[in-house]
């Protein structure tokens, strides 16, 4: 089955599309990646997303406009992926949508809202769409995140030592796959969320992020500011746990700067980069991680990668590319896999990762142009994932 995954993370830097062929036989799922592309959000839509994100107040009118605009942008990304990655031939689209709110109270997730009306995607591509993948896990008592954990666990299982996958998006999340133990997965804290907010703030919005970590590399860590930021209770909570930009936003950073004045912007960037490295490293040390497979936009930041390596001298760092999954495509491929499991009646969550009462079949399905025909339900959940290069039969 040929599946397109569409994802935009908390950084809302654009939509990542990836396609893959999947085949399930017994405990093994084979995945053959077909490529990836990035599809930018129109400037006006990005501005609207930024304006509606917490802690800003918003209106149901703004939410309606965003649901439509994001749905249309995802539909364009889906059409491009269908043409450019799949030669016009695919079976399913899986859309994460854009998270606008992840509602956490006292460590419990009470709701999570991803916008991007899937009807636009189904209408434009003619394909059935699996969307809204997080809500069912929340309804089953889970965090609804990190959902990439299933792909990580299947991919890393069997590697030597205690392997872990780290994704450095707006938020950083880790999946630890210790031998003979259930996988653990949780958000460690901000990866780029505060860094991006600082860069936008200091440049008046002309720059979106600290390109290649140049600002942080030119600055000095302010230990007082770092200590102030590390006071955040989230870091001391044990998993399962998840967080988002509801917590780690610009006013949060400005409050810390009010307590620990740091006049030089590059020193703020250096400190925020170190904060990500320290919180990631603390999570790795707490779980005895011996090798870390990194993905996500933060993997392109050499200053961040150097600081993580400094904090974890005994841990072997590599990229998910080395395992056959392009670092920037991993989350989109993870969602493609989850939707593939959904249409086979298979769960997409690990209760040990999200904290749910049980594993759930994820998402809601919007039919495509043809009557909805689902594959026969599979009776064995996959135990391993093989990345293959040659075409699959299924
Ligand atoms: N060359 C780079 N140098 C520094 N940071 C980068 C670079 N490329 C991407 N990033 C960071 O990665 C972020 C996007 O990562 P991504 O994995 O798409 O996150 P999300 O899943 O939250 O959208 C950007 O906002 C930026 O902070
Ligand atoms: Mg992104």
TrEMBL record:
Function: Catalyzes the specific phosphorylation of 1,6-anhydro-N-acetylmuramic acid (anhMurNAc) with the simultaneous cleavage of the 1,6-anhydro ring, generating MurNAc-6-P. Is required for the utilization of anhMurNAc either imported from the medium or derived from its own cell wall murein, and thus plays a role in cell wall recycling.
Organism: Micromonospora tarensis
Annotated residues for binding of ATP: 9-16
Record protein name field: Anhydro-N-acetylmuramic acid kinase
Family: Belongs to the anhydro-N-acetylmuramic acid kinase family.
Record key words, sorted: ATP-binding, Carbohydrate metabolism, Kinase, Nucleotide-binding, Transferase
Enzyme Commission (EC) number: 2.7.1.170
Classification of source organism: Bacteria, Bacillati, Actinomycetota, Actinomycetes, Micromonosporales
Coiled-coil spans in chain: none
Enzyme class at the top of the EC tree: transferase
Catalytic activity: 1,6-anhydro-N-acetyl-beta-muramate + ATP + H2O = N-acetyl-D-muramate 6-phosphate + ADP + H(+)
Pathway(s) the chain acts in: Cell wall biogenesis; peptidoglycan recycling; Amino-sugar metabolism; 1,6-anhydro-N-acetylmuramate degradation
InterPro entries: Anhydro_N_Ac-Mur_kinase, ATPase_NBD
Annotated Pfam families: AnmK
ATP-binding listed as a keyword: yes
Molecular function terms from GO: kinase activity
